[in-house]
Write a structure and sequence with these properties.
Elements: H1 3-24, E1 36-42, E2 47-52, E3 55-61, E4 83-91, E5 99-102, H2 107-115, E6 125-127, E7 150-151, H3 154-163, E8 164-173
Parallel strand pairs: 1-8, 6-7
Antiparallel strand pairs: 1-2, 2-3, 4-5, 4-8, 5-6
Amino acid sequence: MRTTTRIVFWTTIVSIIGLTLYYFYPEQKLPADKKIDTIVVFKSKRKLLAYAGNQLLKTYTISLGAAPAGHKEYEGDNKTPEGTYTIYDKNPHSTCHKNLGISYPNKADIAHAKKIGKPAGGAIKIHGISNGLGFIGKFHRWFDWTSGCIALTDQEMDELYYAVKIGAKIEIKP
């Protein structure tokens, strides 16, 4: 084999092994007996922190809206909102595995959208991967692909879905 061919071959083998390990490496599970009452999202870090009282239970790596910088201003801007909201709904039959409804828009969001002559939008959720594509797993984290929602793997969404209380506070930070 020529040197260039060997380099390509071994780079490919190492890449395949690395990607396989990334995909299958088990992550910490959320404690089954805890109920989450507070969620804090750090958009710039792509992290969602789940709390029971003041105890941090788990940190998730997330994907956001396709244009994540800044606060959501109107429907269709592909931004994830910033501010304090609540989890108001649980939907087990979502188009993206399961979802938790976020109470966006609030009065200030609606007023701002009206001021700029656009609809505020809504249907902002924490959700899994689009149905039928769950096999993508952790690779979804490599892109911001939602329309303004917060995305997890399907397995992560399952554990969060059952642990989050309706009425839980969610604080979304830049």
